[in-house]
Specification:
The complex is a heterodimer of chains A (about 150) and B (about 80). By secondary structure, chain A is α+β, with helices and mostly antiparallel strands. Chain A contains three helices and six strands; from the N terminus they run αββααββββ. The relative contact order of chain A is 0.22. Chain B has one domain: Non-ribosomal Peptide Synthetase Peptidyl Carrier Protein, Chain A, CATH 1.10.1200. Classes of the chains: A alpha+beta (about 150), B mainly alpha (about 80). At the A-B interface, strand 3 and strand 6 of A face helix 3 of B.
Chain lengths: ~150, ~80
Amino acid sequence: MNHSKILELLPYAAPFRFVDELERVDEQGATGYYTFPPNAGFYRGHFPGHPVTPGVILSETMAQIGLVCLGIYLLQDKIASGQQPGVAFSSQAVDYLKPVYPGERVKVVSEKVYFRFGKLKCKVQLFNAQSELACQGELAGMCSPITAQL
Amino acid sequence: MNQAERLEALRRIIKPYVTDEEAFGNLTEETDFIKDLKINSAHLVDIILDVEDEFDIEIEDEAMEKMLTVKAALSVIEEKAG
């Protein structure tokens, strides 16, 4: 499955889609990029006059690139036409090491721990624009094909 | 391993994932992992993986889907672990 097809199947839309491009997706993991738009709404409140990307948004970015894009790839033979990937975030344990500021392009690298019975668990790292490790942890979610609701 | 020992091992595996402690205290063969113990489907997968390690068995998707109660889990374990 090529990268543009994976991006097409991503079940998110603005302002809650945190994937710009994928560099690598295979059986073992995924690598991709996202640039945080300086005008994103959450910067107005986190924090007024001192915008920093919220940790939950960094986790979401790690999950969308590291788990969901990989999950779509792993499910490729099971997603029939008319179906879409159904995903649910189930757990995370993430350490935050460096702040990520508005406009930064981050790189997310995930490594599969296991994908069994619909549960995908990965070790995921997020690097800031200076290629420094900004956060890392273990994330897991459920991923299975669902029939689109009209 | 007899049935009582298998139940005890299963109880030990389930414990970290339980969110309803009272239901866990009243555990019987009829206890349903999701409805009674309030375990989510992701942690149900963790339990199945722990069961595989503990009993040195391999559980396929079909058997996993049946393992929703203590009784059903014990029956799959008994069948595979002998």
